[in-house]
Write a sequence for this structure.
């Protein structure tokens, strides 16, 4: 079954034209990519666009892909690039729509949590890109420290340090709440 | 230990279980009586939990369809590979055999173009609606459609001035709008027309789609344009139509075509 294949195997099968291989890759990774993009942008609409563009870029990179057991690093590098490009051309109207729809869908018990989450989104924008990428890869994408390090092309110790620094900085930015 | 003895970065490392045994024991001892460190640790936990928390607003999003749509805009050097993936995937999955024909020359009686372009331009662009037979083959729909039938679409876009964008949607007997292209699945989004190839004859779009139509008249719309249109804008035009009115092309550089069928149980 395709779902039993590793990421590298699926990439090679997709490159060979095997039906469903690329679909399986998308379905395996879309949840975490969407969550990371959402944490990065704060917008579900932008997150969906970014994750979609990432998979499109991944598909178009099939001929160049090297199966070296570093699929996560590869795909999350693509995603972070898409996030940065999108952020530069941020579409504020989409964000406004998202905020509106979120508020319409929320129950009263969610309000405090959503407020804190919005504060957290704002605080994330206050981090340097290096710290933000590291902490979001670790928690929003649920990558291990070794995968964070591979994605950012830095030593594992540096990846850990960035994550811990980012958490401390976020706590400072959020104040005493 | 005082507050300055316990750095917040170290608390983060503690939370992530990344401290050595000795450091961990030191922090355990400090946390036992340092209420400020305890509070900061709780704040870090909250930040971590929120960053890791599922996002309900993303539930139900499946990117497979959107990725295939986006790949319809060919990257010239790799077009052949992409087409093989999309078309072979669809065909193999459903056993589809499409009768290829030039739509401009083979319109059905129910195909009623409404366009602001010249008849010459209209001749070269159109959409075909297909349904899957029980044998798994695709056939152009006739006058009657079963509820929840599996549908597929193809388009032709040729001539001297081909279009660049396309929307396909249907309005059922209860005036419910059903979107096929672009996909419109997330509340609060406003997707735009898909980009289409030029000089294309009977290009199969990649999805097989089922939607719960109301019984009665169902009108498929194909909106060809040279600039992308937005879903919410089109829905705005539709809400302004009186009963019996049909959607006209919004400007001189677009064309709306309708295919009417009757949905039965």
């Amino acid at each position: 079954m395709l779902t039993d294949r590793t990421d590298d195997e699926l990439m090679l099968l997709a490159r060979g034209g095997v039906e469903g291989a690329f679909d399986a890759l998308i379905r395996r990774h879309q949840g975490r990519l969407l969550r990371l993009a959402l944490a990065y942008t704060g917008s579900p609409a932008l997150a969906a666009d970014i994750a979609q563009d990432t998979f499109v870029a991944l598909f178009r990179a099939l001929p160049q892909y090297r199966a070296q057991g570093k699929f996560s690093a590869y795909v999350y590098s693509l995603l972070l690039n898409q996030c940065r490009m999108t952020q530069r051309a941020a579409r504020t109207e989409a964000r406004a729509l998202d905020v509106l729809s979120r508020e319409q869908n929320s129950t009263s018990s969610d309000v405090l949590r959503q407020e804190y989450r919005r504060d957290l989104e704002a605080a994330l924008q206050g981090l340097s890109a290096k710290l933000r990428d590291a902490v979001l890869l670790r928690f929003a994408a649920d990558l291990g420290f070794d995968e964070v390090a591979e994605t950012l092309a830095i030593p594992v110790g540096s990846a850990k340090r960035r994550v811990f620094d980012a958490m401390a900085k976020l706590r400072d930015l959020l104040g005493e709440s | 230990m005082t507050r300055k003895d316990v750095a917040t970065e170290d608390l983060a490392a503690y939370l992530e279980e990344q401290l050595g045994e000795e450091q961990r024991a030191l922090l355990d001892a400090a946390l036992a009586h340092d209420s400020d460190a305890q509070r900061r640790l709780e704040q870090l936990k909250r930040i971590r939990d929120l960053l890791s928390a599922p996002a309900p607003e993303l539930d139900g999003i499946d990117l497979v369809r959107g990725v295939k749509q986006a790949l319809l805009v060919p990257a010239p050097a790799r077009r052949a590979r992409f087409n093989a993936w999309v078309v072979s995937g669809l065909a193999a999955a459903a056993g589809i055999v499409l009768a290829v024909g030039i739509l401009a020359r083979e319109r059905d009686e129910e195909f009623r173009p409404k366009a602001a372009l010249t008849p010459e331009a209209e001749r070269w662009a159109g959409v075909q609606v297909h349904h899957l037979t029980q044998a798994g083959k695709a056939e152009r729909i006739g006058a009657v459609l079963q509820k929840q039938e599996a549908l597929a679409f193809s388009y032709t876009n040729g001539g001297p001035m081909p279009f660049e964008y396309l929307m396909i949607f249907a309005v059922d007997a209860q005036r419910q709008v059903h979107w096929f292209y672009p996909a419109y699945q997330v509340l609060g989004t406003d997707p735009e027309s898909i980009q289409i190839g030029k000089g294309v004859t009977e290009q199969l779009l990649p999805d097989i789609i089922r939607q719960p139509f109301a019984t009665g008249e169902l009108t498929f719309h194909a909106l060809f344009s040279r600039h992308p249109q937005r879903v919410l804008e089109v829905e705005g035009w539709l809400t302004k139509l009186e009963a019996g009115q049909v959607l006209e092309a919004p400007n001189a550089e677009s064309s709306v075509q309708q295919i009417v069928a009757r949905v039965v149980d």
